Amino acid sequence: MSTRAGFVALIGEPNAGKSTLLNRMVGAKVSIVTHKVQTTRARIRGVAMEGEAQIVFVDTPGLFRPRRRLDRAMVAAAWGGAADADIIVMLVEAHRGVTEGVETILENLAEVAGDRPVALAINKIDRVKSEVLLGLTKDLNDRFAFIKTFLISAEKGHGVGDLRQWLAGELPESPWLYPEDQIADLPMRMIAAEMTREKLTLRLHQELPYQLTVETESWQERKDGSARIDQVIYVARDGHKGIVLGKKGETIKAVSQQAREELETFLDRKVHLFLQVKVREKWMDEAERYSEMGLDFKDSGA
């Protein structure tokens, strides 16, 4: 039997459920999932096997109206991910319907997609009644010629198997692009940094929306099979450092423990995690920080 392989880009508004869908498809946590928008910064690839097909998912940052340098780089990465893929899947939240952001994506979709097939996945279907779903499906298909429409719940798994099977059949005949047991092509250092950043985002809520980033500074393999991971949390202002540390260091301790526990589960071994907080006022303007996040500094504009 011949094998198939190719790239699938997941695009949509921030918080549409792209990361949740990617993790559900791959069967492992490779993309940061929070209730805050714009948490996925880099084009994270997850690899899913379906029969003889290898589906490589490109989880792009949410598409939104950019205001800052980092925003512009994230939006450029999102459209770049779509332009590089074999198939594009657009995610729309069922309960939010056709928002201004969805309209903006639809306006640009034809130009970016070219002759690539574009499927529609209406997510979070458990939040609306069937007549609302039918109306939304018709409305979206009237606005763009989607090759196929899927009604899914990425969180609960409804309809995800059908989408994965269809994608597998649509990919070009090709040798597999990655070893069968490799779930993501992101370096482990970046995945580890994303896990810590997710815990910070959940813990800090609205206090430090996007003013911080996490980098894995060193990764040492120990003789006993464990790993020592040193990470730096960069914040933009001195006052932010105190927020990340928390009263008597309570916040940083809690974040460190939660991130360490998740890393140990993910790596299936003991992890020694050490976190430092550093103030870098201009980190959003430094090319090195962008490359650490898998973004292109040139795409951020002057």
Description:
This protein is of the alpha/beta class. It has two domains: 4-170, 3-Layer(aba) Sandwich (Rossmann fold); 188-300, K homology (KH) domain (GMP Synthetase, Chain A, domain 3, 2-Layer Sandwich), CATH 3.30.300. It is built from nine helices and nine strands. It has helices at 18-26, 69-84, 100-113, 130-143, 160-170, 188-204, 238-245, 250-267, 287-292, and strands spanning 4-12, 44-50, 53-59, 87-93, 118-123, 148-151, 212-221, 227-235, 271-279. The strands form two sheets. Strands 2-3-1-4-5-6 form a six-stranded mixed sheet, with helices on both faces. A three-stranded mixed sheet has the order 7-8-9. A hairpin with a 2-residue loop joins β2 and β3. α6 (188-204) crosses α8 (250-267). The termini are far apart.
Strands, helices and their partners?
Layout: E1 4-12, H1 18-26, E2 44-50, E3 53-59, H2 69-84, E4 87-93, H3 100-113, E5 118-123, H4 130-143, E6 148-151, H5 160-170, H6 188-204, E7 212-221, E8 227-235, H7 238-245, H8 250-267, E9 271-279, H9 287-292
Parallel strand pairs: 1-3, 1-4, 4-5, 5-6, 8-9
Antiparallel strand pairs: 2-3, 7-8
Helix pairs in contact: 6-8
Structural class: alpha/beta
Question: What fold name stands as the CATH topology of the largest domain?
Answer: Rossmann fold
Low-confidence region ranges: 32-42, 62-66
Mean pLDDT equals 79
CATH architecture of the largest domain: 3-Layer(aba) Sandwich
CATH homologous superfamily caption of the largest domain: P-loop containing nucleotide triphosphate hydrolases
Order of helices and strands: EHEEHEHEHEHHEEHHEH
CATH class of the largest domain, anyone? Answer: Alpha Beta
Rounded to an integer in angstroms, the radius of gyration calculated over CA atoms is: 20 Å
Q: What's the number of domains?
A: 2
Total of helices: 9
Give the CA-CA distance, first to last residue: 51 Å
The total beta strand count reads 9
Largest sheet: 6 strands, mixed
Helix fraction by DSSP (H/I, runs of at least 4): 25-40%
Strand order of the largest sheet: 2-3-1-4-5-6
Portion in strands: 15-25%
